[in-house]
Amino acid sequence: MNPQPSDPWREPGPDPGVLNAAQRGELVALFSMLRAHRLELWRVCLALTLDHRRAERLFHETLVRAAKNLRTLPPGSPILHWLTRLATHLAVAWTRQEGPRRPGEPTGDWPGGGAESPLAGDPRLLAALADVSVPDRLLLALAVVERLGYGDVARVTKIETLEVVRRLTRLRARLAGEAAA
Amino acid sequence: MSNHLSVQDLSASLDGVLSGPALEQLVAHLAGCHACRDAQSRLAKHDDALRRLLAHDPDDRTMDELARRSETLVVAIVRGTPEPPIVTSAPLAEEEDPDAPLEPPLAPDLGRPGERATAGGFGIIGFRPPVPTYAPPSDPDEVRRLIDALEKGNAGGLDAANVRANVRANVPASEPLGEPLDEPAGPSFDRVEQPGMGEAARRDEPARHYEPRADAPRTDAPRTDAPPIPSGPAAPSGRGFAHGGAWSADPPYHDQVHPAEAARFSAPAAGSDPMSREPRREPAWSRWGMEPDPLDPGTYRQPITDPFPIYARRPRAGRNRIRSQIMRASLVSALATVGGLLALVLVLRPSSLATDHAGARPAGSLLGVRLPPVLLTPHAHDDTSTRTPSAVVGSPDVRDAATRGAVETRVPRGSAADSSRAAAGDDPHAERICGQVVNMAGEPVADVVISVLGAAATRPGPSPVRSDEQGRFCLSATSGPHVVVIERAGLSQRITVGFAPGAPELQILLP
User: Fold this and answer.
1) In total, how many domains does chain A have?
2) Quick check: B7 contacting A, CB < 8 Å?
3) What value does the mean pLDDT of chain A take?
4) Which residues of chain A make contact with B49, given a CB cutoff of 8 A?
5) What is the domain range of residue B151?
6) N or C: where does chain B have the smaller number of CB atoms within 10 Å of the terminal CB?
7) What angle do CA B152, B158, B164 make, to 5 degrees?
8) DSSP 3-state assignment of B466?
9) Interface A:B, Cβ pairs < 8 A
């Protein structure tokens, strides 16, 4: 069994033995690494795409990319951070391929959609979130949903801590409709 | 300066990164500032909404299914098997079939007209469609009565059986439909329109015309906008549609048939015998449905039955003329390019000659283009003693096959080189270079160790040497470039010095 880590965002890298086995192509080791973080990765994919079906595809493609490039993962690196950055790069690439989103364009399919959507009563927030760039959406997801501190967000995204603070402040002000200080 | 908290402070408080005095100060301010409290609650409300939106965790079954599909992909990658396509629980918007209907298919009665006609037997040669080819007539009075019943809410007046009965009462007695047309037994291949084929059948049987059944004549006229339905035996119009062995009267595209092809679609005259021995008066190419080719006299071609104009074929001569003009222009431009390049080479060569011996620039390098070095030196059989060096440099002698190459050209030796060689010893290959070591202020530097790096054979003279009070020194080495090491106070510097007769004085600048 693979017990869920207590705090997967702050755990160190995978066990070197497990990582080596996974890099050698042992499926058990590889799946144990990937299954341990599937829920966090799913939430990240959902925040990056804002679409249930696209989040599924991003989830699959991220794991496929991870399996292909697992040998490049340096020992000791947290695998969830690496998977998060992979998903972000893929989502950014998708956004570039599809072009900028037009203002007012409806967001995608949402789990539980329609009137049962958690934001059915506040569609403006969802529309505003859809206008936010993919990396900024990741910052919001890490800080607000995953409740990571600024330092942890900086470690996951490999962005300077002060830049994380500045961008989160600007994003909150933008989403709340307030003028940035 | 504002007395309220900044958005950054409020954001930091929501993220829980404040502690100690900063947190106490913020809490104290929020306790007394209504506006900041509202702003913080607004930000917190949006954070909660974001959390509800983005923290939507699927149930275990969905997550297991998601992981199972991912692991299928990963297994294929690890094992090197063909990677299956990535599938999602529902197709993405861009993956959906663009041709798929957005709505469920219509009921059979409301389907597309083409499908309905095909299902009804239309388009099948020799088969009478089982459905009428005209719309059912409508009775305005009956329609008005139904509308009135609808408006009054009298549903009984809209009984479907009544409506159908009322409508059917106006429909003429339909003829038996859905039966194959009565055709006599016989060959069903084309007998008339194919010249030279089916001649025996053509002789045996006259051409048959499509004759609608007359056993149930229609009693009412169809709608005015509907095509007229033949009510009796079709009068032979002299033209027919011969395909599949069945004749139909005047297919709609007969008006577009080329006149030369009209004979193929003409009904044979009654009693005519295609196999009769009577000589035909029309030419053979006409009988075969061909026409003379106006662009190639003496040949015949199939007639052009589409509206494509004949004059659209451009004569070949015109295209050749244009092609020759293009070739001529290309040839002229190529010759002009070659001539320009030759002129450029001729212009550049004297320039390189002028700068070769003057020493102002490396020989053969002009504007970044490396040209072969050209030396204007006296011939090998010339007596250099009768010429001064200044006369040799820049001499307009023309090189011939006996002229030595640049590396073989004899370098005139001056008296200074001879004296330096004498001072270096008896070695004829030893060259000596003297110089001075100065600092950045131009003052001479003494006690600087200068040596030639390399094997002992390359150092025929004393090495290393030290600069004197005036900073001067002299080094000896064999001809050619050598690495000279300059050492002073633990610092070492290396330069490459070319030892050659007549070399200028070496100036070493120390920082």
Assistant:
1) 2
2) yes
3) 78
4) 118-119, 122, 125
5) 105-181
6) N
7) 150
8) strand
9) 132
B93–chain A nearest CA distance, Å:
9
Secondary structure, 3-state, B58-102: CCHHHHHHHHHHHHHHHHHHHHCCCCCCCCCCCCCHHHCCCCCCC
For residue B161 the two structure tokens come to 């059986």
| Alpha helix (H) residue ranges in B129-280 | 140-152, 160-170, 199-204
Residue B346 resides in a domain: no
Listed by number, the residues of chain A in 57-116 with a beta carbon closer than 8 Å to a beta carbon of chain B are 57, 59-61, 63-64, 67-68, 108-109, 111-112
Q: For residue B70, with 0-12 CB atoms within 10 Å meaning exposed, 13-18 middle and 19 or more buried, which class applies?
A: buried
Shortest alpha-carbon distance between residue B83 and chain A (Å)? 10
Residue that finishes a domain, picked among B116, B147, B181: B181
- The single-letter DSSP state of residue A92 is H
Domain enclosing residue A152, as ranges = 119-181
Q: Is residue B391 a part of any domain in this protein?
A: no
Q: Which of B17, B49, B92 sits opposite A57 (nearest CB)?
A: B92
Contact B33, B66 (CB under 8 A): no
Helix axes A150-157, A161-176, angle to 10 degrees: 110
What are the DSSP E strand ranges found in B215-287?
Answer: 240-243, 246-249
CATH number at residue A29: 1.10.1740.10
* CATH number for position A156: 1.10.10
The structural domain count of chain B equals: 4
Can you give the pTM of this predicted structure?
Answer: 0.40
Which residues in chain B are closer than 8 Å to A147, comparing Cβ atoms?
16
A139 touches chain B (CB under 8 A): no
How many whole angstroms separate alpha carbon A57 and alpha carbon A137? 18
The amino acid occupying position B498 is G
Amino acid at B377: T
User: Residue B391: its pLDDT value, please?
Assistant: 41
The reply to whether residue A178 touches residue B66, judged by beta carbons under 8 angstroms, is no
Residues from chain A that touch B85, judged by Cβ atoms under 8 A, are: none
Interface test with A, best of B6, B41, B50, B89 (most A CBs within 10 A): B50
Domain final position from B36, B54, B72: B54
Which of A39, A68, A144 is closest, CB to CB, to B77?
A68
Q: Calculate ∠ Cα B269-B275-B278, nearest 5°.
A: 85
**CATH number of the domain encompassing residue B443:** 2.60.40.1120
Give me the residues of chain B with pLDDT under 70, please.
1-2, 87-117, 119-123, 127, 129-136, 154-281, 304-319, 350-429, 455-462
pLDDT single digits (tens) B62-94: 888 888 888 888 888 777 777 777 766 666 555
As given in the structure block, the two tokens for residue A171 are 């994003």
Interface check A9 vs B, CB under 8 A: no
Q: Do residues A128 and A162 share a domain?
A: yes
Q: Which residues of chain A have pLDDT under 50?
A: 1-5, 112-115, 119, 178-181
